[in-house]
Structures are given as structure tokens and as C-alpha cells.
Amino acid sequence: MWIRAEGKTGFAETAPPEWVTDWMRRRRAGGGARAQDSETDTEKQATKSMAALTVEEAPADPKAEARAAAARDRSQRNREEAILAGLDDLDTWLADQLASGLAGFASQARKSCATLVQRLVDAKASGLASRLEALPGRLLAMPEGRRGGAAVAELGQLNIIAQAYRRQDSLPASLREAVRRAVGWVQTRSELLDDPQAIRASGSGRVVAVLSEVQPDRLRRLETWLLREEPGGAPESAVLIDFVPVSTGPARSPYSVGERLKTTLVFYTSPAPLRAQIAVMDSPAAATSDPIAFPAQSLGQALDAYDRALSPRQRQTPVPRLVRTLLNS
User: Fold this and answer.
1) Which residues pair with 214 in a beta bridge?
2) What angle in degrees, to the nearest 10, is found between the helix axes of 126-140 and 173-183?
3) Is 298 found in the same domain as 191?
4) Is the full-model pTM beyond 0.70?
């Protein structure tokens, strides 16, 4: 409606339908029971008249569309600038933590992280803010002897993502999209389904795990892990992720372990595609007693496959470290 108003096209004026005039007349007359008796007839007449109405689409206004496109571009540029400013604050904060020493970081992590979390939220880098907000809880859940090393690894991952974001134009397209998502950019479901480059996979799959986790932002993260039954081609595994507010009460995945789904999946762009959305549900989830056919591979082979996902052509460059960071996030 705003675009229409900006275009100054206006709405076409015409005489009101007969059923509207009749209804208004009875309202003014206070028809009471008479109006109630004729309610069904009025509804029928309304349906018939509305079906006969034709809505004339206003012609597209190139100037209004250009203004809307310029506004979107301006908003994106402003957010990019805000994120880069937030990354500068992250660099300063990381340098301060190194200067004061990381031996006791875990014990004061909650206080140390709180201010920067809010700054990253203000900078619209919500992905990094979420990682940093969850960091104190992850550290305190570990045995005390492991906290120092884990703090170094976690802060190092934040630094790698920040540096990669600044150099995103030099990264492969799939890695660039993964970096932007890690920082906080979101690809909507409709954008993903409309993406012609997104990987698609059709066929049946089994639910092998369902997870529910409450995040620091008071959202419940629901994960449904699928193992595809059609070998070759598309990724063998997929994860469906949904978020629901904790305030709505208990929630769980709509699927149960062992169920078979026949779907068409669309995968988010990534160096190692895993997260997906269901584009088409070919048949509803069905319980089955068939055993789940897990890949016939040893733990060593599984680790080798994980290593191959870390950009095999560039294993001697910093890029694999970044991919490993994103896979572990």
C-alpha cells in the first residue's frame, strides 16, 4: 500500500455494489430481527456480488520501484558498515583479553562477554553475538582443566570468522555464504527455494536423531537429523533446524527417530552442505520397523570424510581452518 501511495495511482472510484447499499440501509433503519432473518440471504448476495467484482491492477510505477530498490541497497550498505564497525570492536576486545591473559578467562567470561554481546547486537552481527553469549556457559560446563584451551579455540574462531568476513570477496562463493551466515545474515526460506544454484535432493530418508536445546536468546533450537537412503549425488545427511520461543511452552521436533520421510530437500549454500529445508513433502512421515542402514564405514573412515570436507584442494592454506570453524559451529 505504501508503494501504491508513493506511485500516486489512487484507487478507482465506482458505485458501491447493491448488496452493500442494501446492508447499509438496514443498518440505518435498525432492522433488528429483520436483518437477522435476512442474514443468510445477504451473505449469499455478498458472495455472488463479490465474485462478479473485478479488481483492476494498477500499472507498475518504475519510479516507485526504483526508490524501493534504492532503499533496500541503502539499508544493506548501512548494515555492512555497522557489522564492520562491530568487528573492529571485536578485534579490540580480543586484544584486551590477550593482554590480560586467558588463564582466568573462563571464571570471568560472563562479565567479560556481556558488553561486547550487546555491541554486536547493535551492529547487527547477531550470529557472532549468539556465539559469544553462549561461550561462558560452554566453558563452565567443561572440566576446569580444559577451559583454558577451549577459551583459546573459541576466541580464535571468532577472530577467523571476523577476518574472513572482511575478505569475503576473495572467498569461494559457498564459503562466502557460510561466513555471512556465521556473522548474522539470514537467507529466508523463500530466498533459498528460489535459488537456482541451491543443491536439491529428492527421495526417502530416515530420521536418525532429534535434538532440542534452549539458546541464551530464549529460543528453543529444534534439530532433526536425516540420513538419506538414496546413495550418491547429493549429501548423505541433512539437518532441519527450527526455532520456537521458549515462552510458547515445551516444543519438540514434529518427527520421531526411525520415521521415514519422502521429500525434496533444498540445501543451504556451504562448503559442506548439511542444513536443508523441505521444499516438497512427497509423502507424510511414516513409522517403520525397518532397521536404519547406516554407512558401512569405520570411525577412521568417517574422520577421513570429515577431513575431505575441509576443502581438499586448499588444505595447506588458511581456508580449511575457516571451514573447520564453520563446521564446528
Assistant:
1) 220
2) 70
3) yes
4) no
